[in-house]
Amino acid sequence: MITTMPFGKYAGCAMNQVPAEYLLYLYDNDLKEGPVREYITRNLGAVRERAAREKRTLKITFGQYKGWAVGDVPADYLVYLLDAGKVKRGALYDYIVENECTLRESADRQAENRALMRAMAE
Fold first, then answer.
1. What are phi and psi of 4, to 5 degrees?
2. Tens digits of per-residue pLDDT, 49-76?
């Protein structure tokens, strides 16, 4: 059984210390087989619960969403923070980078929904 992450940004870290969103990203996108995939598959429920908990506990410490849990902040705002260079390191930066694809997709959907609502209001 694997106990430490064997590769990548979190190489050498205990598997239960690797951010859950990173593990879910690997599970959903990159990893087709091997000990890390087996670990995630065996612990998938716990990894998903930890990911939800991490989203609730990481807080924005500045700006218009100060004090909000990162999981409650609109995706387009998080993408803006990254693109504008407003966050360059730390837990928030790591969260945004690790979830960048999902956040960008959500931000695009949010923009489409706003455009549709404006068109309907006209």
1. -130, 150
2. 988 888 788 889 899 999 998 989 999 9
pTM passes above 0.90: no
Give the Cβ contact number of residue 19 at 10 Å. 21
Please tell me the number of Cα atoms within 13 Å of 45 on its side-chain side. Answer: 0
- Spatial separation of the C-alpha atoms in residues 103 and 87, rounded to whole Å: 15
Indicate whether 67 and 115 sit together in one domain.
Answer: yes
Residue span of the structural domain in which 98 resides: 60-122
Q: Are residues 53 and 64 in the same domain?
A: no
Question: What sign has the CA pseudo-torsion 52, 93, 79, 61?
Answer: positive
Contact 84, 100 (CB under 8 A): no
What would the two tokens of residue 23 be? 């593990």
Which residues are CB-neighbours of 18 under 8 A, at least 6 positions away?
5, 10
Q: What total of structural domains would you count in the chain?
A: 2
C-alpha to C-alpha distance for 119 and 79, rounded to whole angstroms? 24
If you write DSSP's letter for every residue of 18-37 in order, what string do you get? S-HHHHHHIIIII--SSHHH
